[in-house]
Design goal:
The structure is a single chain. By secondary structure, the chain is an alpha+beta fold. It has 2 helices and 6 strands; from the N terminus they run H-E-E-H-E-E-E-E. The longest helix is centred in the middle third of the chain and has 15 residues. It is globular and about 35 Å long.
Length: 108
């Protein structure tokens, strides 16, 4: 099985899923994240949300595919943790600017 090669900021995002402070190195300062009904604006809001989600759900994401749709990188990942219907496949739509994540949308 071949390992999935992700662009650096996207790989860093998945590596930081349990280290919210590390997210500052993945996103632009004014990044926007939409995560299954939650809209977060700015790196501080994103870090706070990810810290809360990590503590609450202890989820682990394993990306298994990536494709390009215009200027968006679409990553699909198996996500397992302490939440109903675990595990699930989530879709992450990343728009990068200057080698950082400017916009991220996470959907089921």
């Amino acid at each position: 099985m071949n390992a999935l090669t992700l662009p650096e900021p996207i790989a860093a995002y998945f590596a930081a899923e349990h280290a919210p402070d590390a997210l500052a190195h993945c996103f632009t300062a004014d990044a926007v994240m939409n995560d299954v009904g939650h809209r977060l604006a700015g790196i501080d809001a994103i870090k706070a949300f990810m810290a809360e989600a990590s503590a609450k759900y202890n989820a682990t994401s394993v990306p298994f595919s990536i494709e390009q749709e215009g200027d968006v990188q679409v990553v699909r990942a198996d996500v397992a943790g302490h939440f109903p219907n675990s595990p699930v496949v989530l879709t992450y739509r990343f728009r990068l600017e200057r080698d950082l994540i400017a916009h991220l949308e996470v959907t089921a």
